């Protein structure tokens, strides 16, 4: 979820390696007329168990289709490389779990099925999926995948630390200046307590948290000309907020990918606030943290967050297998199946219809903060679905790190970011 993958490493060679790919050697139709399709889901732990249980149910209830969920030997983090190699070899799956940020590059392959006309099928009308889910699978106005997962970003806070410091709990509509001041008041060096944290590995986990701040200030990731960034001024203001946190020594910087140390500090009771998604709630609950959830702070007073949807991408292995793959994925993202997967994986409903299901409403009632994450989908935005995004993200990630460690001012950091990002945007695609 929300990870960048390795788009930048493989994008340059993707067109060359897949342009001559042939379809699979057989159409997957057995002597009994049943079509077999291959699913590379990339899930681990409880999510793997949940997906494979859904596959067994589909196979039981759809006797004309058999889904092989062997997985291709790749986890989601490595799926882009695995699928790219498979396309080059001409032996690729029918369905793969592709990170949303990787879709623009993988969709350059002619083997990726265009699903634009398919969105009218299924029990859930396309417009009932959250806007973020729809936008994340749309490349150049064509639907190139179906949504697999959706989430949002909010602030989870430790109520015990707030009480000990005599600081009021944050409320919806608070400002970034109030966030900085709150983090400063909650920082207690004598007891190793930080007001907040920020991932500092320079990866997508570092970068995507800044986009809502930039959007809130009126910036865009790509400018109107399509050849330069649209956040030169807004990026400086957003990075100044990080500089303020660093100046006051109230931000814990996690230099390891994934932010796991930051989360361990939070569940260990030494981090007062952390911006995260619903997937972390099970760990926080297991750690018995007395927590609350509040929307992200704002500069403008308008509610805004970010979502990082991932996708089920379908590949063309002939008409029979393509039809079967569409039927399987369409079934998998329908409300009943969607909610069951959400309850296991700690993700959010893909559609408003799913969010109204009794099972989801019961989960919202018994899980503190889940309603905040769900409501945030009304105002969630997504990163642009363009091939150059990985390079833009990497450039901003380095800018963020330089501000967090104090080696550059926000203005210097954004100038360096713009130099690299603008060059990426000018590369013909």
UniProtKB/TrEMBL annotation:
InterPro entries reported for this sequence: Bact_solute-bd_prot1 (IPR050490), SBP (IPR006059)
> Which Pfam family would be a valid example here?
SBP_bac_1
Q: Keywords on this record?
A: Lipoprotein, Plasmid, Signal, Sugar transport, Transport
List the source organism.
Answer: Streptantibioticus cattleyicolor (strain ATCC 35852 / DSM 46488 / JCM 4925 / NBRC 14057 / NRRL 8057)
Q: What is this protein called?
A: Sugar transporter sugar binding lipoprotein
Signal sequence, start to end: 1-23
């Amino acid at each position: 979820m929300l990870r960048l993958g390795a788009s930048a490493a493989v994008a340059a060679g993707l067109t060359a390696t897949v342009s001559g790919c042939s379809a699979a050697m057989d159409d997957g139709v057995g002597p009994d007329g049943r079509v077999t399709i291959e699913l590379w889901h990339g899930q681990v732990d409880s999510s793997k168990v949940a997906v494979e249980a859904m596959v067994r149910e589909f196979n039981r209830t759809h006797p004309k289709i058999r889904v092989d969920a062997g997985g291709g030997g790749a986890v989601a983090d490595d799926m882009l490389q695995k699928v790219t190699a498979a396309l080059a070899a001409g032996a690729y799956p029918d369905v793969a779990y592709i990170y949303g940020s990787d879709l623009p590059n993988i969709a350059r392959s002619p083997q990726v099925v265009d699903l634009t006309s398919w969105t009218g099928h299924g029990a859930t009308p396309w417009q009932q999926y959250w806007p973020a889910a729809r936008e994340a699978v749309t490349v150049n106005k064509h639907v190139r995948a179906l949504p697999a997962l959706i989430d949002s970003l909010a602030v989870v806070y430790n109520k015990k630390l707030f009480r000990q410091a005599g600081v009021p709990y944050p409320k919806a509509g608070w400002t970034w200046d109030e966030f900085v001041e709150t983090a400063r008041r909650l920082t207690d060096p004598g007891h190793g307590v930080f007001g907040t944290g920020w991932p500092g590995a320079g990866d997508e986990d570092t970068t995507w948290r800044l986009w809502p701040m930039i959007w809130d200030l009126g910036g865009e990731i790509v400018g109107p000309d399509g050849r330069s960034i649209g956040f030169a001024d807004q990026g400086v203001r957003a990075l100044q907020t990080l500089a303020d946190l660093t100046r006051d020594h109230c931000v814990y910087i996690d230099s390891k990918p994934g932010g796991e140390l930051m989360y361990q500090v939070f569940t260990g009771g030494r981090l007062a606030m952390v911006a995260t998604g619903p997937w972390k709630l099970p760990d926080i609950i297991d750690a018995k943290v007395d927590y609350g959830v509040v929307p992200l702070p704002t500069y403008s007073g308008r509610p805004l967050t970010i979502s990082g949807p991932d996708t089920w991408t379908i590949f063309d292995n002939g008409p029979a297998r393509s039809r079967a793959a569409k039927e399987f994925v369409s079934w998998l993202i329908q409300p009943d199946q969607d909610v069951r997967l959400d309850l296991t994986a700690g993700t959010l409903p893909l559609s408003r219809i799913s969010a109204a299901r009794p099972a989801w409403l019961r989960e919202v009632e018994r899980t503190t903060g889940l309603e905040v994450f769900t409501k945030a989908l009304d105002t969630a935005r997504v990163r642009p679905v363009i091939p150059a995004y990985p390079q833009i993200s990497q450039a901003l990630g380095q800018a963020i790190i330089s501000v967090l460690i104090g080696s550059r001012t926000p203005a210097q950091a954004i100038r360096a970011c713009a130099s690299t990002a603008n060059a990426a945007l000018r590369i013909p695609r």
